[in-house]
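Here we describe the complex-level prediction in full. Unlike the single-chain runs in Section 2.1, the two entities below were treated as one system.
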Amino acid sequence: MKRIVTVTPNPAVDLTYHVPGITPGASHRVPAPMSRAGGKGLNVARVAHQLGHPVLAIATTGGAAGQTLAAELWTSGVPHTLVAVAAETRRSIALVDTAGGETSIFNEEGQPLRPAEWQALADAVVEALNGNGAPPAGVLVGSGSLPPGAPEDFYPSLVRLAHDAGIPAIVDTSGSGIIAAATAGADILKPNHHELFEATGERSLEAAAWFLIGLGARTVLVSAGAEGMLAFDHAAPGGYWSARLPEPLSGNPTGAGDAGVAAAAAALAEGITDTREILRRATAWSAAAVLMPAAGEISPRYRELEEQLIVTWKETR
Amino acid sequence: MKRIVTVTPNPAVDLTYHVPGITPGASHRVPAPMSRAGGKGLNVARVAHQLGHPVLAIATTGGAAGQTLAAELWTSGVPHTLVAVAAETRRSIALVDTAGGETSIFNEEGQPLRPAEWQALADAVVEALNGNGAPPAGVLVGSGSLPPGAPEDFYPSLVRLAHDAGIPAIVDTSGSGIIAAATAGADILKPNHHELFEATGERSLEAAAWFLIGLGARTVLVSAGAEGMLAFDHAAPGGYWSARLPEPLSGNPTGAGDAGVAAAAAALAEGITDTREILRRATAWSAAAVLMPAAGEISPRYRELEEQLIVTWKETR
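The structure predicted for the assembly as a whole is:
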């Protein structure tokens, strides 16, 4: 099997606190948090690794939080390459109210990388694509936000590196990064519906997805929460595929999109190019992630969920 | 001048996030936090150091958060001895709502130390009291909570070490630690009114303070928020001293109690034993801490505030 290589330029240490009742303005005594190497590309690698696909997770790490991230990633068993940077790795803090309240999340923005550090990150990708005795790469995945001051060209350059190596590229990011990756010819983009509207300025999912394909993207997978997923394919301009469960699942949606990307990456790495099949898998893995308490894991029920999917072609021409 | 030695068995990395509007249940994007070596004994040492008193801050540190604490403490210039422990140093997270909401605090409980680590902490105290060429110790201060599973005897053993070295001991803690330190003959206890009621089960400040003195404490300083401070002295059983400003100050009360302990420690280290004088200084430094944005600092207005104090003897016999 060919390897799934993921790139996470702005990872985070995820600290999850379980607080028995959150009172704004009060002082709370809390147990030590769950600490986990986080970031969308790491979640993608974790899920694919869990399902037996060979992976390599590439990420930056810096400072004391970076050491925590490295230690946790090492413990997880997910093969990885970490690029040392001067800036401290950011944290993401989740406050889970165990007395029945809502979960509040505080994501640090991340700090700028130096030009030489961006180069080192690109070099790590090139090395991974060259293989050097490791299983050959089957797909390259770029995931997540970029730290402030990132080169606009970062995700497009990943797409070019993948294509130069003869493999497809998936990009899952937000904002102008989506536009740049589409223009570079990304094989799959996977925004959620909010990100898609925000990046394109369009008012309908269809118009937004076709806009990205017009720029150069080959396939756009859109996750739309409980509505399931839609797939737009440059080779099928007359409509789109839609996949959803008969009943939406309740659970933890954090990381569901990353599980969908993991499914798409696994499919591409296996040589599957049928958009309908990719959509089925991505929707099922994404739903199976909702059943798990933490991002980066999916429920073993993913096969059963895939059989329940309602997949339809919507002709729109 | 003789040195103030502080002991912090359960320090924390204080992370302060400035959040422009906190919405429970939402995801927030936040700048990197202010990160600071925290814990009550470190705050005491910081304040005394700021005012030119020789200090030594002794604390435990472990894991990646412990490295962050060590790096920040080194940068602060406060002389310190850190005892390495296996358990990761805890964090304390403050979420400051810059859109005018309240500040919410989440204090991790800390993790147990191994018996050999408790011994190493005690050894570091003995070494500090012996001096070995450093300025001689003038007072020993034990501050803050104890990690779970701590020996009940820890603060009492600090009091005995101080007395064996011929110097006074101050203990500022909560719960059963107050009772234990009183029984061991602590020279000054400094609970706030909430801690005093909780530890003694009494309903009046006077009854609670005299109960501690009955156990063996020599002086009990009670911080009572905007009411100022009260001082109960074993040698003056007919009443107590009270000190307060004509008008309460508004500001940040975090660390105000620690500044009061720093004042009391500085006074004892200078050989001042008059309870009224110790109370004046402690109340003034504590009030000057309220004017500062972060714990561990006091406003240069502390002398002016001391002159404004209303100090009265309340005869209660």
